Amino acid sequence: MESILTTASLGNPIEFKDHIFIDGLEIQYVNLMEVNQGSPLVGNLLINKKMLSIDLRFGGPFLYQKGMLYIPLFIRRFCVVGFKLARINCSDFSISYISKIEDLIYLKEIKNEKIFYFVDVYKDQEKFIALF
Hints:
Blueprint (H helix, E strand, L loop, with lengths): L3 E2 L13 E4 L2 E10 L6 E7 L2 E2 L11 E3 L2 E10 L2 E10 L5 E3 L8 E6 L2 E5 L7 E5 L2
Antiparallel strand pairs: 1-6, 2-3, 3-4, 4-5, 6-7, 7-8, 8-9, 10-11, 11-12
């Protein structure tokens, strides 16, 4: 049976579960902080107690399917603040970036080989990315 974790039970970008067990994996956010006051939370990510990177901060909630974790990655560069959608292979912890920078990435679901997400907390603007 295919494992799919949707965001329905995990919360929203401002308040989400920070410690989840799925498919034999322990996924935990640590060092959580607000991007700005009253805005999304981001933190470092541990998978099976291994920190992916001290420099990368991830938001939530995430989606999980077929050994892949789809998660918002916080980007802060000179004059650019936002999120990119990252795909983490949970077997080798490799990270790839599959979207352009958005103000917010609020993941919804994976359906028909597409990942659907909102770019606003009110869920007014929906987008999708085809998974190859």
